[in-house]
Amino acid sequence: MAVYTDVDDDALAQFLTEYNLGEVLSMKGIAEGVENSNFLLETTRGRFILTLFEKRVAEADLPFFIGLMDHLALAGLSCPTPIHGIDGRALRRLAGRPAVIVSFLTGMSPRRPTVKQCASVGTALAGLHEAGRGFALTRENALSLAGWRRLVADCVTRADSVRDGLGRTIADELAFLESHWPADLPRGVIHADLFTDNVFCIGDDVSGIIDFYFACNDFYAYDLAICLNAWCFEPDGAFNATKAMALSRGYTAARPLSVAEAAAVPVLARGAALRFLLTRLYDWLNQVPGALVRPKDPIEYLNKLRFHAQASGPETYGITSA
Ligand SMILES: Nc1ncnc2c1ncn2[C@@H]1O[C@H](COP(=O)(O)OP(=O)(O)OP(=O)(O)O)[C@@H](O)[C@H]1O
Ligand SMILES: N[C@@H](CCO)C(=O)O
């Protein structure tokens, strides 16, 4: 369960005196998620999500994440809106951690997305990219090439304890990506973690997007590559070309890709697979005692990486340029 930090009733009551949210009716830890401690908070004014930021979130980045949610919500994206306190601040501290309260969104995360939901998430991703334009703050992607290099250095000697030969594979892959990563593509604010558990759907349509705590400035097409990884493989590991085509077409109908972006998708998909392989591997090798979080399977992303390494070109993903 993703509750690393407990909050006692007195501390919560004191914290809520800083807001206009009425009286607390209940607060429950939320099992989903692996990064932060999340609570469902019910007050006489409604439902909210209370998040306490944990290990991988740098406090210096929080104004970017919170400002971004304010910006996107104002631009019409269905995403959590930070609740500002009586003093106007949305970010404060609780139980020794930085903390924020955001609005509650309705909808269900798809367990196994349908083709139509893939199309809808493609369109929603393009909408997010458009809505992010004009946001004043910037944040470099800490989990791009330089970040991968650091993770490889941390994990490579122990990687073979998870799978024979894994250390060699990731070192080779990093070398390949360092020499093939695009130098320049259209860029702006990206979500960078748009997995199914960060998307709410009602029926076939995306109803909301959550969890902006990896958002950063990077190539738009890299965000598309992350989604292709997260949405278009079946539980048995098979790539679903129909879902990929639906997702890509949903995206490009709203934001066409340039020739260079389209051509880069296979290598971006490889990079996205390595990124999640490495963070999962790091978590697998460095489990937090007592956190009650089950680390995610790194090998799932090794298999996706192998798929992308064999891809014949952007058409594998149903991608055509403008
Ligand atoms: N604004 C919201 N409205 C409704 N439910 C929410 C909201 N924010 C978070 N949740 C619920 O809390 C869960 C965990 O949230 P979130 O994904 O932000 O956590 P996390 O620890 O950052 O997870 P991860 O990075 O692993 O996806 C979600 O799966 C969802 O069930
Ligand atoms: N979505 C990530 C975890 C949170 O970043 C993964 O599945 O590895």
UniProtKB/TrEMBL annotation:
Domain Aminoglycoside phosphotransferase as annotated: residue spans: 27-257
Record keywords, A-Z: Amino-acid biosynthesis, ATP-binding, Kinase, Nucleotide-binding, Threonine biosynthesis, Transferase
EC number(s) recorded for this UniProt protein: 2.7.1.39
Reactions catalysed, as given in the entry: L-homoserine + ATP = O-phospho-L-homoserine + ADP + H(+)
Pfam family, one: APH
Pathway: Amino-acid biosynthesis; L-threonine biosynthesis; L-threonine from L-aspartate: step 4/5
GO biological process: threonine biosynthetic process
EC category name: transferase
Cited InterPro entries: Aminoglycoside_PTrfase (IPR002575), Homoserine_kinase_II (IPR005280), Kinase-like_dom_sf (IPR011009), Pseudomonas-type_ThrB (IPR050249)
CDD domains named in the record: HomoserineK_II
Gene Ontology molecular-function annotations: ATP binding; homoserine kinase activity
SUPFAM superfamilies referenced in this protein's UniProt entry, alphabetically: Protein kinase-like (PK-like)
Annotated HAMAP family: Homoser_kinase_2
Family designation: Belongs to the pseudomonas-type ThrB family.
Official protein name in the record: Homoserine kinase
Species per Swiss-Prot/TrEMBL record: Oleomonas cavernae
Gene, per the UniProt record: thrB
